[in-house]
Amino acid sequence: MHSPGSPPLLAMVKKLRLWKDFSRDEEAAILSLPYTMSTLEAGRYLVRDGDRPKSACLLVSGFACRHKIVANGARSISAVHMRGDIVDLQNSLLGLADHSVQTLTDCEIATISRAAILELAFSFPNVGMAMWYDTLVDASIFREWIANVARRDAASRVAHLLCEFAVRLEAAELGDKFSFELPMTQEQLADATGLTSVHINRTLKTLEASGDIGRAQRHVAIADWDKLRKTADFRTAYLHLPEEPPLAK
Amino acid sequence: MHSPGSPPLLAMVKKLRLWKDFSRDEEAAILSLPYTMSTLEAGRYLVRDGDRPKSACLLVSGFACRHKIVANGARSISAVHMRGDIVDLQNSLLGLADHSVQTLTDCEIATISRAAILELAFSFPNVGMAMWYDTLVDASIFREWIANVARRDAASRVAHLLCEFAVRLEAAELGDKFSFELPMTQEQLADATGLTSVHINRTLKTLEASGDIGRAQRHVAIADWDKLRKTADFRTAYLHLPEEPPLAK
DNA sequence: CGAAGGGTTGAGCCCCTTCAATCTTAGTGG
DNA sequence: CCACTAAGATTGAAGGGGCTCAACCCTTCG
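ok -> structure tokens follow
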């Protein structure tokens, strides 16, 4: 579902523009990156732990996540990605994938070679800086997730995930912060919060009963943003979004 | 302490050389970065959550950690750093610190302005790439820590921390992988593993009783590396170290 | 209509926490 | 050299948050 009129790489421009303003030339340079489009169903892998990817994937539509499996077979999800995220920069620049990337929903993907990205980054320092910045923001989110999983109770962890998803969804201009479809099963929520799917279920019901959220199937309505924020201990600083969110269109 | 003969920035060269080979020019460019030295006691802050740092800090000797505090007052440590780590690149490039950096031991620090680092990164792409790579490796370690805290039991978590510390210590040429001084109190270990100091204490004793490690005060001796690795579910891939560790000297 | 994936619920248990006391070690001043 | 202090390590007892196991329900889709 990305609109057929606009070029797919515009999603990348929009994302990077959160971090830096670009000149016409710089923007053109991004849009002229060579890429190939593909469509993937939910549940498919973009990269697998142990692969040696030679290219990065821009998520043009849909949702994906990063995860790794530990010895006892349990899975840990370390990030959720959405339109505009250059989802495999980390693995492809490092050379050897230390985790997997898997689609959560059907996705459209633009594949861009690592070489082309590096060329762009170092010919246009401003663009390079925005990409570097982008990977640093990802790292900041990882740090917050460490704190989330390590030091918050179940209700806070789940609430925090919902707050982050809501804010990022809005920043990506993908919908309403207060009412959205969560593209994850309760088992995936469990893997993203270090809980079990059973306990996710109970926790969601608690959040519902306490008036923080409403829900119907996978749809989440944030009933009381300030209340949920408080339950979550959520502060947006770690997302490093611009002070004034850019006006929608 | 760092040997008085060698220039402090050599620590940075050595670290970055783990990721890229440098030409003589590139190496000289790193070594000619302007910096100011300072010495900090254990427990001092290099940056505080909320600061707007204008410069980055190279750790020339000693140990430091990153942490953030959650609503209930609990602390989460998200990384431990040692000689050669450019410890505040993340906060200074992002502009607004989303976490604090604090010394664990007495430290010698070289402070380098953000502008000088960016200048270097984009005049010498190979050096820039090494620095980017360095921040990507940090991110990879964060992902592993998420998995550690989210999906492993107490013994594995602590064992994993010890394995990582041992391997990084060796990679930084700071000592013996199998026998070292751990520069952290049990409370700090707790904050790095999402446990309590009481349980850290019991877990260390368990690891000792099972023959994985020996210890005396803060000194740790890895009694059986393979056993500890197995307990920890530790695989080095996520550290992205070169296949052949560079020969000492 | 049947199957499959995912959501919901209950009962019992256990890993880790909490609370609190005691011990050890290192540092300080007399 | 020894009291005195403070930080950190150690230990015990009791409790709880989240897990495990297992059943059942709901929705979607062929």
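Residues 153-154, 195-196, 198-199, 202, 217 of chain A lie near DNA strand D (CB under 10 Å from a C1').
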